[in-house]
Design brief:
Layout lengths: L10 H14 L15 H15 L6 H14 L3 E2 L9 E2 L10 H29 L2
Parallel strand pairs: 1-2
């Protein structure tokens, strides 16, 4: 194995790492909700969001946020001043340009983490194929 190359990374693992990084930056949750604590529906969405983020290298953090916003709205979530899972309210259910800088940075970080991990994964597949 080439030094510094991450061993094979599945879609599941990329999503897990990306979600955990995203959540650790969240100002909305005093205690971040990490991958192992997510319900299966949110895990499936996270994997779908990871794949969405990779479908085009030009996808922006705004588009990632819009994707999440549309998914949450379709699931019955609405804007609320505080995050309330039981009543499906979330303070980030607003257009990207209205988010404060720290919330915008979370979506940018998500994209960076996903792309970096997939870059390593692609390299690892190439190396294994050409051994």
């Amino acid at each position: 194995m080439v030094e510094g190359v991450i061993p094979f990374i599945s879609d599941h693992l990329v999503s897990k790492i990306s979600v955990d990084a995203h959540q650790k930056l969240s100002r909305l949750h005093p205690t971040p909700i990490l991958w192992n604590d997510l319900d299966e529906g949110l895990k499936k969405y996270a994997i779908a969001a990871t794949k969405y983020a990779l479908q085009d290298r030009k996808i922006t953090a705004k588009e990632v946020h819009d994707h999440w916003l549309n998914d949450r709205r379709a699931a019955g979530w609405v804007f609320g001043d505080t995050h309330d899972k039981d009543n499906k309210r979330h303070p980030s259910l607003i257009p990207f340009h209205n988010l404060d800088n720290s919330e915008q940075q979370k979506d940018k970080l998500f994209l960076k983490v996903v792309r970096k991990l997939y870059k390593h994964r692609k390299y690892d597949r190439f190396k294994r194929k050409n051994r």
